[in-house]
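Standup notes
- HV: blocked on the assembly model, inputs below
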Amino acid sequence: MTDAPKLASERAAQADPRTLRFGETWAYAAAPEGTDHFEIAERYGLFIDGAFADAAQGATLDTLNPASEERLSSVACGGEADVDRAVAAARRAQPAWAGLPAAERGRFLFRIARLLQERAREFACLETLDGGKPIREARDVDVPLAAAHFFYHAGWADKLELAFPGGRPQPLGVVGQVIPWNFPLLMAAWKIAPALACGNTVVLKPAETTPLTALRLAEVLVQAGLPAGVVNIVTGDGTTGAALVRHPGVDKVAFTGSTAVGKEIQRALAGSGKPLTLELGGKAAHIVLDDASIDQAVEGIVRGIFFNQGHVCCAGSRLLVQESVHDLLVEKLRRRVERIRVGNPMDKNTDMGAINSRAQLERIEALVASGTDQGAKLYQSSCALPDRGYWFRPTFFTEVSQSHRIAQEEIFGPVLSVLTFRTPDEAIEKANNTPYGLSAGVWTDKGSRILWLAARLRAGVVWNNTFNRFDPGSPFGGFRESGFGREGGRQGLRGYVQLDGELLGA
Amino acid sequence: MSDRVEVRKTYKLFVGGKFPRSESGRSYVPAAAGGVNVTRGSRKDLRDAVTAARKGLPGWSQSTGYLQGQILYRLAEMLETRRRSMVDEIGGGPAEADAEVTAAIDTITYYAGLPDKLPSLLGSQNGVSGPFFNFSTVEPTGVIGVVAPDAPALAGLMALVLPLLAGGNTVVALVSEANPLPGLALGELLAVSDVPAGAVNLLAGKREELVPEFAAHRDLDGLLLAGAPAAAPSAAAADSVKRVRYAGADAAQWSLAAPPGVAWVEPFVEVKTFWHPVAP
Amino acid sequence: MSSPVTPSDFRVPPVDQVALEARAAELASRSIKKDSKRQGLLMAVAMTDLTTLEGKDSPGKVRALCHKALHPQPDAPEVPHVAAVCVYPDLVAVAAETLRGSGVAVASVATGFPAGRTDLSLKLEETRRAVAAGAAEIDMVIDRGAFHAGQFGQVFDEIGQIKEACGEAHLKVILETGELRTFDAIRRACRIALLAGADFLKTSTGKVAPASTMPVVLLMLECARDYYLETGRVVGVKAAGGIRTAKDALRYLVLVNETCGDLWLTPERFRFGASTLLNDLLMQLRRLDTGTYQRPEDFSKD
């Protein structure tokens, strides 16, 4: 027997029998999604001018399943010569593509949307295997939204004059696009669909760790009969992306990724006058007021930070809670976080999957260590984690100060920082105290307060009594260092057309 | 008759609604301003101007579009009644100068009618697949730095500043280096129109010295520069992900020969999208 | 109640319908397979209140129902008996006689079921008589007229008096959520019933559409959970009406499993009020055992 002092929470648990118990009565059997309906090739080439080919230098990259660390396939690692070839193919294809009757351009996009729907299960499985996200999300969010983006933009192709009255919209030419690893197929759709609708041709560079669904999308493009060279997909690493954005034959650059790389790209294009859109990092404030629908707010918070393992640029990573409901909310959140099912991403009942890569896992671990070091109070789910693969428990910190690194830096993982406020003014002050400005959330039952707060939040998307909702018709993008330009909606087309009388880019 | 010693104007900066001399104590003799000394702004003057513009931002940006429009229209009234003195500040041929004032007045009235239309023109209600009310509106980017062309000194400045004001931004503008007099005189009009202090701040000085400071200042949210795209300011601006645009050198754009619509406003407003559930 | 209840006790936090429905839909997408499916189906059988509430009910039909309740699948001893047989008050005695000593309870609707539009004294008398005739569980309806008129105290008092009239019998309080319409109203009605001493919160009579829905039951479970954490008293939840398939039943059990947990995964704390659900549960159990799809005609329709 030792007389070690007990934690307050332990004492409370002993004194109070009112504790809920979970999982001892009814455990769910494993429900893995089957993968016998499709094949993953041993290796993939670059998709240039309508055909797959090895990289000129023969370089390849392995792509892993982050849930098992097993190699899934190898993909070509494109170099400057490959980018050159891809840009040239896009350049050759562009006049004819832009010259097609607009309705026909639209019909290709409709076809792509339908093919994605038809092959949805295969895409969802592949996305989960390559990226580590739960199959439930790949199936219910990534793939349907990707198809929806093509379908939505298909309808714009022959209505561009309606979107920009008097602007005489013209295509920009060849668009270079670089996308991240968190929503590989969806980001490809966000980029390719509006570019093609507006008459541009594309060279797309998928993320190094998640190239497979973009390459499968290339197969769909071929199936759809899209003319060769209209979309070219050059897989590779950071150097491949750098070669693409700096290529003189690229007329416009669109990038989604970290703020640091976004700044590099902005610098690289300086003086070129080329249009650029950047969708960068975030550190979204998620504000809960004392009159909020509290159980739904808890669901919103969970969706805000643990969706896709927190690998979401608009994740609600800073929870600002009105002091009077802080304790209740944190208690409810603690219980709810304990219920998140972490594990095999291919299991249909998994809520949170694997961290995308070892490098990302290490970054998350380092930032969480800083949170503990700086004095914030750590809470982590007690869930069991698999032995192999890259995993991190659902985590949140209370007693966080604005000055803590975990309150300032984008963690891009399943880690939430909880802060408090007393008045709406203080909530706004704290929410806006960041260089970022991508998204924000507000939970309150009072309409006038929602509108007051939403108008003052410096963020491109404000979710009120909801979070992490996306739609192709809804413009998405950031204020400040979260980037510029929008994706989705009528406003999203603006990044892919030239208009009469417009100013010159940087 | 002509032996009266006339009172000459001291050309000072316009910052936060006041007319300070440069903190640097320097002045310069602009190339096309009749040999007068003009106070020469420094990086610290820029700092002060950005502070003033930031302070003025909530007041200007949260005014209703209707009020913004009326205030800008008041500025046009002020300029119209001071047409003759402004012609003198512009100098050169009186007919050309008069035409430039006309262009400036036309520009102001064009944009005076715009602020209360922007939500309709640039915003939208968005159809989404779910039980949500979804709309997008526009908000000003924030504090924007302007580098005006050498000529036309007044009309060029107005063509750059007005779309930014119409978008709800506040402005720190570096006026024409060659002839800063009309730009600085604009401050005198702003001071007596109802434009709130800090909404427009005017600096005179050397572009070579000040443009890099504009580009590097982290509390400027955007830059709008006359002339062709240039690598150095654009690269420096990337450090804080500024919105940067260049107006080129096409003479036609300094008048309303081709009305610009919202083309010059759009790069300096931010689209904000709002989601709200719909349920009984 | 240790301290008197005041109107402010009937205030409840707001409910966001869209987010509540989204959470229910998310839980509905759980995939329950193999052993967990068998266990879930057996649990659902044991949680069923086998119900007949029709004007044409007869002693013969009730007896047949009771036999089905006792031995849902006579050739499969591992299939448990159901939780209760639920009938109108005049048939309580018939059911009680058939079920005596079996562990299957007799439940009776009371209080002017389904509309509840009768005098309180009659409601109390109906309750006492049903209990006297052998009902171990009383399913009462709340006074929706009073509720919509804002007379929450009256609703509360009536539940309290019925509870008293129940004596030892368990009281299930039917909110008739299909008539309350909004989730804010449902949450308030839950609060009133909990404070007034309900042993179970029950969704519906089955006579009003919509009857039980996943979001409604999720909300009720949240209310019961929070009330337990507040007071230590465990109140059950009964989903009644419109639940016809084993698949739906498993989805409800997922709600219980992930919202309230183990304490509620028992017939003491969670029930299905249904008439046709049982046969689908049995069919799905047989399919699990044999691996082949079944035909409804092979299962007795009592």
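- HV (later): unblocked. Chain C has a mean pLDDT of 96. The interface with chain B takes residues 16-19, 181-182 of chain C (CB under 8 Å).
- Next: hand off to the docking folks.
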